[in-house]
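Running log. JK asked me to keep both predictions on one page so they can be read side by side. First protein, sequence followed by its tokens:
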Amino acid sequence: PLTDGRRRGGERFGDGRRFVFSGPRIHEYLQEMHREVFAGRTGQLLAVGEMPGCTLEDACLYTDPARGELDMVFQFEHVTIDHRGSKWDLVPFDLRLLKASLGRWQVGLADNGWNSLYWSNHDQPRVVSRFGDDGEHRTAAAKMLATVLHLHRGTPYVYQGEELGMANVAFSTISDFRDIESLNHYAAATSAGEHPERVLAAIRATGRDNARTPMQWDATANAGFTTGEPWIAVNPDHVTVNAAAQLVDRESIFHHYRRLIELRHTDPVVAEGDFTMLLPDHPRVYAFTRRHDDVELLVLGNFGPDEMVVDLPEAAAWADAELVIRSGGRATNCSAPLALGCWEAMVLRRRSRP
């Protein structure tokens, strides 16, 4: 029989996940699935495991090609850094925690295994709202976030609308929401005495409905998603943020995603190169290198609106490097070789010294 999960203070039900995640025969079952379903078949087949609670040590086993289990896993460590305990108990975003988490997984799966790279999915808030700026600097922030993620080692995933910079939706009342998790949390929290507006603020920030509003195809009614009535309201910003508008704008977020995907298909450094984190304690700059044979890429991302000069020991050595991709305009107030503008990302290429 299953053991009851431990109940945290004020919760009606216990959390029994630790009794069912990664059970004692999980590797046996996955190897059987791989053997019976995938082994010996032609074509490009891919098995991905969605694995909450998966540790780095677990992932090394699951994704080791020699074991014949999975090709990669979806782990959730990096999407827990902005809350503590409950997902509704939010804390300010700290870039250093994000770098520590993603960097640890890059190193841990470097030799055996493979990383899934993602910012968003159907259960997570929109990344441009979560880790970026969904206001004045939405386009710049969305491009920067895409560049940083897609230049990591692993397989990037693009959640629907992410390639347009779709943002969280600021529903005004609890009746606008549809997700049962959010509705139950609102009922329980307000019954326990929490102020309704405080509860709503947390739901707006991290609720799952943010990822589930209709895809924004164009500026027409219901964003071109349906001629009927959608099950949840369309984000009002669809009149300016939509696929039709971005298809004709060569500098749009959509076309930036296309360039990043093309780069992964054409540059072996992006697909196969090793990964080295730089400036792990910098609160604003995400910096790392990728190296394959004698080619090295430097990837820089500015997580903020203020222009930033990146102080690296080898900054001068990158002064004449080839510019591979840039997500925005140059910093206006500085001519330093590693200067980043507002929410800007930059990728440079050079031949590395032996």
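And the second, directly underneath as requested:
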Amino acid sequence: MTGTRRHNDRGSTGAVSVRGVIALAAAVYALAGSPGAPAGGESASKPPTSRPVTSQPGSPEVLAVLSSAAGPYVQAEKAMARRLSELGRSMEAVQLDELVKRGGAGRPGVRVYVAVGTRAAAWLHPRIKGPAAMAYCMVTGLAESGLLGRPGRGGVCTDVPVKAQFELIARALPSARAIGMLYRSKSSRSRYVLARARKSLPKGWRLYAVDVDARQTVAEAIEVLCRRRIDVVWTAPDGSVYNTAVVRSLLLAAMRRNRPVFGFSPAFVRAGALVGVGIDPARQGRRAAEETEKLLSAPSPSQPGVHVGPDYRIAVNLIVAEKLGIRLPDALVKRADFVFDGKGRRNR
């Protein structure tokens, strides 16, 4: 039946694509904000310290500051540069670490700094002083960032509403009622993600959250989670929990236990999740350019900025669906922006 599961004992670990895991590394870095979180607590990727960024006369109007050279950040920056050029604006780009090496003073004459990624946003936000303003894209955890409600700030985040994610799970697995997830009790970001999940849970659904910090290893936490009577494992871009190795371990363990996984990026789905959502970095860059233009055109840098949610894409993996004995609804597959079926990725 459409959307129902049937038992399947065939070997299944081959569904975890090695190429997909490699591609996932950049997506985890960009969305979760850290390539490798420590065993407990906050992300290891902390913003460097330096003196405040100031604006001086002369040079480009816009300076894009990339959290790193990860592919999604570069895609966003290039799309932003093209759109700003179309709008007649000048822009240059620099990686955060390079900016810090220069003393953190940035470029003279910059009117708007654009943070590309959460790490860059966390560093720039407290250091931007008037008359400069700040835009951003590829930023997660917007509600925690301190950007909301601040004058001279505006941009687009990567936070796909949890309610929309759960609605997608309901479409993919109509009989699903029990969701499992990993979190870290010592991480404020992770506790926030857990609170959002609990608040967004549909009526009649149950959430089983396994605390990684309460286990000796991440592998143990994953095994405990996959042994639970759950219908799907839900993941979120939480840098305190997920890095590429954790994602790969989760996908392998879930496949062995016949548990579908909901991934937080198309790369995650390509690597072995059943279904998931993600953002388009180029689209983020173009929208950041539009918000940058609004800040440049504002009569004063103290003008409140606009903070917008992301346009998200749906991804499905038909190879994983077959191995798990799940038939995804035809309407969902047709709606998906990315379909991984072993014949090459198909984009809608």
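Observation for JK regarding the second prediction: The chain has two domains: 13-39+161-279+312-347, 62-159+281-308.
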